[in-house]
Each structure stands twice: as C-alpha cells, then as structure tokens.
Amino acid sequence: MALLKALQRLFTVEKGNPALxxxxxxxxxxxxxxxxVILLANTAxxxxxxxxxxxxxxTVELPSxxxxxxxxxxxxxxRMRHVKPSADDAASRLNSTVYLSAALGLAFMVWGLxxxxxxxxxTQSHVVFYMxxxxxxxxxxxxxxxxxxxxxxxxxxxxxVVFFGLQGEVVLAAIAAxxxxxxGVMLFILSTxxxxxxxxxxxxxNLETVNRETQRLSDANRKLxxxxxxxxxxxxxxxxxxxxxxxxxxxxxxGAGFALGIVDLDGFKAVNDLYGHATGDxxxxxxxxxxxxxxxxxxxxxxxxxxEFGILAAQDVxxxxxxxxxxxxxxxxxxxxxxxxxxTSSCGFAEFGADCSTTSELFxxxxxxxxxxxxxxxxxxxxxxAIHRDNLRRVHEIDQALRNADLDHELxxxxxxxxxxxxxxVVAVEALARWRSATLGSIGPAQFIAAAExxxxxxxxxxxxxxxxxxxxxxxxxxxTASFNLSARTLASPDSMVQLLGLIQRSGINPARIEFEVxxxxxxxxxxxxxxxxxxxxxxxxxxxxxxxxxxxxxxxHVHQLPLDKIxxxxxxIGDMTKSAKAASVVKTVIxxxxxxxxxCVAEGVETExxxxxxxxxxxxxxxxxxxxxPMPARDVLAAQQTGLARIRHAG
Length: 652
Ligand code: C2E
Ligand code: CA
Ligand code: CA
Known about the structure:
Layout: H1 2-10, H2 18-50, H3 56-79, H4 87-115, H5 121-141, H6 146-165, H7 170-226, H8 236-251, E1 258-266, H9 268-275, H10 277-295, E2 299-305, E3 308-314, H11 319-331, E4 334-336, E5 339-341, E6 344-351, H12 359-375, E7 381-383, H13 386-404, H14 407-410, E8 411-420, E9 426-437, E10 441-443, H15 445-454, H16 457-475, E11 482-485, H17 488-492, H18 494-507, E12 514-519, H19 520-525, H20 527-540, E13 543-549, H21 556-561, E14 566-569, H22 571-577, H23 581-597, E15 600-603, H24 609-618, E16 622-623, E17 632-633, H25 634-643
Parallel strand pairs: 6-7, 9-11, 11-12, 12-13, 13-14, 14-15, 15-16
Antiparallel strand pairs: 1-3, 1-6, 2-3, 4-5, 8-9, 8-16, 8-17, 9-10
Helix pairs in contact: 2-3, 2-4, 2-5, 3-4, 4-5, 4-6, 5-6, 6-7, 9-10, 10-11, 13-15, 15-16, 16-18, 22-23
C-alpha cells in the first residue's frame, strides 16, 4: 500500500506544497525553450533523412503539425514568463504539462516507430538514436518536474524496449536493454536531484518565513521603542531624541527655534485611585485624543510617562495662548464608561535660546515653569522667563553649597512652641531646620529643603537634624515632646526609614516623645510606601501629624486611611479666617473633622489675639504661631516649658 502511494507520488504534482510548485514552475520555465528546440531540431533531422524514403504525410505533414503545436506552446510559455502565478495556477499549469508530456511523448514515439520500417540500416539507426537521445534530453529538461519526467520516460521507454527487444535482432535487443538500464539510472539520479531540490525549496521557504517573522518583530519592536503603547503618542525616548535633533540642527547653524513644553494632569491620581486603572487609562487615551485634535503642523505631542505629556512647539506658536487652549480642552469633563471624571492641567514651556545650550537644560527650564504653573491654581500655563532663570540659578547655587556643606556644623534646629489655646501653656515644640551656609549665609528651610529634596541629599539632612533633635530631647525633661518634619523623599524611601528608626532606637530616647509631621503632598507621591512608613513609626510608639492640611490635593478618603494623631490646619486659612467667611468655614470644617476622627487639631500661623480667641471658641485646643511664640534655640525651650510663658518672642 505504502509502495503504491510512493509510486503514485512519483507521477503527481505536489499540489499541497505551494512553495514547491511555484519553484518548480520557475525552474521549469527556464528550460522549456531548450526542450522544444531539441525536440523540433531532432524531429527535423529525422524528417530530412526520411524525406525521400517515407510517405510525405509522415515526413512533412505530421511533423509540421507537431512543430506548430510545439511552437504555439512555446509562445504560450514565453508570454507567461513575467506572470507570477498563484500556487493553484502553478499547480494546474504543471499538471497540464504532465498530461502534455505524456501526449507528446506518445505522439513522437509512435511517429518515430512508424518511420522505422522505411529506409536502410543507417536511417533505422537514426530513428533508434533519435528516440533514445530525444527522450533523454527531454527528461533532462524536465528534471524539476519529476512527475512529467517519469511519465515521459515510461511512455517512450516501455514501447521502445518492447518494440526493439522483440525484433529478433540481438543488437537491437542489446540496445533496448541498454536503454532500459540508462533510463532506470537516469530516473534514479533525477529522483535524488528532485528530492534535493524540494528540500532546498522547503529550507528557503522556511528561511523566508523566519525572515518575515523577524522583520515583523523588529517592526513591532521599533514601534514599541518609539511609541507609548497606551496612547499611541511618541514616548519619552522618542520625544527626547526629537528635541535633541532640533537642538543639534540649531547648533549646526540651521533649523528654526522651538519651545519645549511639559503638561501635567492635576487630579489624575485621584481618578486612578477612585475609579481604578482601567478608567485612568481611558482618561489618558481621551486626553491624548484631544491633544492630537489641537496639535496642527507646528506641534508635536508625546507621553512622557504617567500623567505627564511633552510638547515640541515651532517658533511661531504663541505659547501662552496655545497653553490656555490646551488646558481648556483638557479641563472638559471626561465621559468614561459609567463615570464622568474631571481633571485640570498645568503646563510649563521653555524656549530654546540664550538661556540654555543643551536639551537637558531646556527640559529643566520647562520643568521649572511647570512647577511654577502648579504652584498657582491648577489649569495654568507658565512660560520660562528671566526671573525664573535667576531663581533657578539660585536653586543650583544652593544645591552646590549644600553638597559641599559641613552639615553637622552648618545645620541647626530651632523650636517653635505649641500652645494650649485655653490655658496658654506650652504643650510641645516643633523642630524647624536652619542652615547657615559657609558660602551663602542663612538660607530658609523652604529653599534648602526643597533643593535637598531634588537630590538624595535630603536623607543625609534628615538624619543630621534628627540626631540633633535626639540630643536636645536628652537635655529636656522626660515629659517634653517635640515634632519633627519628615520630607516626602524620606517617607517614600524604605532605606531611609530604616536608618531613621535605627537612629532613634540606638539613642535610647523614648520614641513616644517624637511626633512626625508629614504633608498631604508628600503622602501623595507614593501613597502605599508612605503609609507603610507611617505604620512603622506608629508601631515604634511615635505619633503622626498631618501638616499644612488643606493645601494638598488629597481627598478626604485618604485621611481616613491614615494612622493619624493630629491634623495641623495650614496657616493660610488661619490668616484669612477673620477676613473671609470661606476660610473661617474651612477652619470650622477641619476642627469638626478632627473631632469626628478623634484626632487633635492644631492651628498654625496664629498671629493675633483675635485669631487665638476665635480658634478657642471654635473648639481648636492647640495653636502655634508668631503670636504665641517664634521659633527659638534649644537652650530657650526649657525656660519656655517651665514658665509656660504665653508670649515668648524670639527672633527665628
Ligand atoms: P512648616 O512645617 O509648616 O513650619 C511652619 C513654618 O511656619 C515655619 O517656617 C515657621 O517659622 C512659620 N511660622 C510659624 N508661625 C508663623 C506665623 O505666625 N506666621 C508666619 N507667617 N509664619 C509662621 P520655616 O521654619 O521657615 O519652615 C518652613 C517650612 O520648611 C516648614 O513648614 C517645613 O515644611 C519645612 N521645614 C522646616 N524644617 C524642616 C525640617 O527639619 N525638615 C523638613 N523636611 N522640612 C522642614
Ligand atoms: Ca511642620
Ligand atoms: Ca505647616
């Protein structure tokens, strides 16, 4: 059965292998002219030698018909030479070639044998020669189409061997045997060659498939490397590369000026936390769609990461105007599946020009402008200006000086007392950092803490200050407590937290004497990490106060999750409290919130007796501010605590 199948395969076109049939057709097409030329030429020679011996019909008419047929076929092939047939077409053309080979083989064989009886021994040998050689040549030309070669060989060879083998002539029988042998060997070699050819085609086809897949993957990779997969916008890497290319062109003396912008969505984090990441993603996609709508030819948008987007704007763009349009577009409500979300955005622009010479400087300027935009109410655009440049230089100066500072000697702590609004006695103190730089003189904490926060210096600063606090606490009575401000970076870094806890434990000071103040904004940077840090501090026995309450963007839902002991109302509200009903109601709301949560409420920045009285009447038991006491050196704290003086006024 298997043998029969194998035999059948020898005589059929392998339709199921498209690559092979196409390759066969290609290879075979090149040999077709040779096949017909040999066939026609050999036939013409035999006709010529038999012209005077055999009937006209056999020597001229019949061969002419064959010739016409062959020429027609040849023209047909010639016409099709540039057409790339489908696999099915190729298979059917090969199939018809197999049938035609059988038909032509039969026709020429019968013609040859019918000429044999005419003439003498020479012409007869010519016929034998003609049949054998023409068949071998044609089989040779058909070597890429095994089925046709086998069919032709057998159709010509079997009658040939039978005919000459039975002539009763030993020489002819020997020739027949020779021919059978040669044909057998030839078919065997042809079969091997054909298998190699099929293997080569399969390998080439395989290689092409692999190449195509490699190309597809590399295209996909290239797209991934340059595009943000969520929004389809260029990604950070591509954005920086584009900005760099523009900078380089300008530096080389060509190209027009441009501006770099950074847009940040305010309130996006809350959407993500409240509705989940899928909704957050949908919002980002919609935001980028809106950006694309207003982009125009002079603007390129990119997603830099998270809720931050980059802009490259041509020189002629009115940056402030475009920023306004952009913020307005992004401010429109987002209809997402089953929720409607709203976010605002801030936008900072910096122009490439006299103030900067590198892409990273340009980036820094845009980032600074964005920071300024965020500092104002959300939904603002700021373009980097000369004033910003001077401020930024100052930040760099501070950063440099801080890096080279002898922190142990140059940093100090002062303490601002916290009073009971009713009894007016000091109940605690808040430690505030001071820096007297050897090169820059006194720098306020708002400035140098911000500079240190930008680099990892903040963790060193925190540890130096904490060591000083622990030393001071050691000098004070056991019941004296102090609060200590923790920066966002320290709170988010498990390493720094471990160092900080270790320092307290080694000092032998009771951790319950320390209260850590954290701001809402610091918590929001990495809420989960911050929450873990707060629990570590709480577990150790320390207390936690939420500082500057009311200025951050955190939602009330977060406050419930925090392990808090105290909330400090930001001094902005206390300052406005007596002038604005809105500020007064915020203060009242926070006092009530503290009541509900069971945490202590502290008012910051109390500057007048009126404010102090109002706070007392609203139920706020603790207050801090210049009216009660300015920050003072450690040596004065003891006296303040002992005497409980209501109005110690020291310079900070
Ligand atoms: P803060 O934690 O809100 O500290 C209170 C700030 O308000 C202090 O400014 C204090 O001097 C000032 N202040 C107190 N009472 C009044 C008042 O009645 N009126 C006005 N106008 N201001 C008042 P300071 O010392 O310049 O500190 C500024 C900020 O720097 C602090 O704000 C805190 O966020 C940060 N900071 C200070 N020390 C440290 C520290 O050791 N570590 C960290 N991470 N941050 C610190
Ligand atoms: Ca504070
Ligand atoms: Ca504060």
